[in-house]
Design a protein that fits this description.
Elements lengths: L20 H10 L4 H10 L9 E2 L2 E2 L1 H13 L7 H6 L2 E2 L10 E4 L8 E7 L2 E6 L3 E6 L3 H4 L2 E6 L2
Antiparallel strand pairs: 1-2, 3-8, 4-5, 4-8, 5-6, 6-7
């Protein structure tokens, strides 16, 4: 006995709510002017955090900013976030452009974290808990500790 089963391919459309943080982060990536920046970020996304790290086995925030700025924008930064903040020309957060730097102080007065601004309030950084990730700068957790933002050129 031979049975024939006929099936059809269903067309199911999967959508992500456009107001979710993940969708907004994806939009920020899609809206990057620099495609090499897009490729750099996607290549590093998910690499774990490692203090002092400077490769795919683990990277810290200042190392990530250091490599990104050098490879994508041809800018050589100091290696430590506090020193990176010293070479940045201060800019109001509303005037930030793709590739500008954002600095935070989670532990007090000194700069102890850095990220690279993308657009629409999003930035990329090496998070101590989540590794390299695109994040929302407008979150209160970041707004409370943001101490400087600006450009190196």
């Amino acid at each position: 006995m031979l049975s024939i089963i006929i099936t059809s391919c269903g067309t199911r459309k999967y959508t992500v709510k456009s107001d979710t943080k993940a969708a907004q982060a994806a939009d920020a990536m899609a809206n990057l002017k620099s495609k090499s920046l897009y490729r750099f970020i996607t290549d590093w996304t998910g690499v774990r955090y490692r203090f002092g790290g400077l490769d795919k086995n683990g990277i810290d925030c200042s190392g990530f900013a250091f490599l990104l700025e050098k490879e994508i924008f041809g800018v050589t930064l100091p290696r430590i976030s506090r020193e990176q903040a010293n070479v940045v020309r201060r800019k109001d957060i509303d005037n930030l452009k793709e590739g500008d730097l954002v600095f935070f102080s989670f532990g007090g007065n000194d700069v102890d974290h850095v990220g690279v601004y993308l657009n629409n309030g999003f930035f990329v950084h090496a998070s101590t808990t989540r590794g390299v990730i695109v994040d929302d700068l407008t979150l209160p957790a970041y707004q409370k500790v943001l101490v400087k933002s600006g450009s190196v050129n």
